[in-house]
Amino acid sequence: MDFGGAPVFYFFTTALLLLLSSNIESANASIHVYDRDPFREVGNAYLLSGGSEGIAASLATPPPRKRAFHSATHDGLSYIRFENITFWRSKAAADHHSKLAHSTGLIQVVIFEAADRDNIGGSPYGGQKSICCTADLAKLEGCRQGEVIKKPSATDINWPIIVDVHFGGNYQSAHLRNTEVYITKTGMYNLFFISCDPELRGLVMTGTTLWKNPDGYLPGRMAPLMNFYVIMSFAYALLSLIWFSQYMRFWKDILQLQHCITAVIVLGLFEMTLWYFEYAHFNNTGARPVGITAWVVTIGAVRRTVSRLLILSVSMGYGVVRPTLGGLTTKVLLLGITYFLASELLNITEYVGTINDVAGRARLFLVLPDALLDAFLILWIFTSLSKTLEQLQAKRSSVKLDIYRKFSNALAFTVIVSVAWIGYEVYFKATDPFNERWQGAWIITAFWDILAFSLLCVICYLWAPSQSSQRYAYSEVTGEESDDEASQSLCRGSPTGDVSLVKQERREKSDEGSDLEEAAEEDKRE
Predict the structure, then answer these.
(1) Whole-angstrom distance between the N-terminal and C-terminal Cα of the chain?
(2) Higher confidence at residue 244 or residue 487?
(3) Rounded distance between C-alpha atoms, residue 260 and residue 336, angstroms
């Protein structure tokens, strides 16, 4: 695979500069849109989930509660804003009441912190928990029959917050006036619209809610990632600078393998930068830009696919022990296409248009194929790497053997750390079902980007461009350079020396033809 080297770099650099110079459109809305969303029956209540997000406490003093709605953005304030919220009941339910009746149906807007979840609802005589107050609970709990049961929070008697919305007469719709609920305590907040009236079966809702943190509209779990992607963009830019300085210096001796490494670096830089702009846009507008998100997810899927195929190809000895992959090329490409599709589908489901801090259930069904493909890739990589090491040991190619041992150690360390982190991630999520540790959840996502970047740096170090790269690539030439000098030239891109990087014993020359035949037979068997 020849990715064109320098032209590719200049193309992506130009694209990034154009993106940096463009203005990010700003608005005053973090948008959860409800488009005739239906209420569902849960126990003795009808409810609709309005969202769940981690919100940090306001940095500024909220205005008086009587000043309910403001059109401007409040810097330093955290709040949940309700706009154009309208509830619709069926015509049959509306016709049960006269036009002059005052209150003919009640919907309650309930906002509570995850830590106060047990303060909503009650249980008569230790039985099943009820959201709505029943006749028995009214006697035991002192609640009002037909309304949501609420107990004051231990930290703030004004929470949970409940706002009542009444239907009037025989109207089919009821409106919640535009208002804001200010957040003065950091936590994971949940919003529910609940009705305890059995006549309001089939209730639907339209409108929007806007959730804001002190620094913008990013959900609390995502906010640290914006700064993280700035750091990763600079890290990839630094790696690009170092790599391309060597790449341009020895461009006449560049290997196909090094073209692939170049592509991974450029894709990584482009992906990290796009992630930052996607999060910055989200933070300013409150809505995820579907176009940008789809592009960055696709670029990420391409980068992960190319990275894995690169590692697999290196493990097979491509460009170093063998000139081509031979009969394995089709299998490798087929695996790459399959992995790309699985990764793309998983990340589109997880990221495109997603606002809530709670991941959807659909993700669970898409993680399995991606995980199985990764497990298969790891097995194939280490199987191929073992065969390559055996070939190098048999040919006593000490320099290549040393490089591949370092590479195998780096891979083994990466796999061990990955497995350990997966175990931690499972533990983290299993012990936090209500996302109360949302402030530290960003590291779960960030870790994999850091690990991938670290492994890429190791590969760049081991296969850095040098003036002897072409003679190093699948060569059997015997030079006067010692193994130690060759290793330094190979690993660190030393400009000195005009001999091959791989010193072979003289007897290897007589075995060159047989080695090629063995490789061809191995390809056929695989």
Answers:
(1) 21
(2) 244
(3) 14
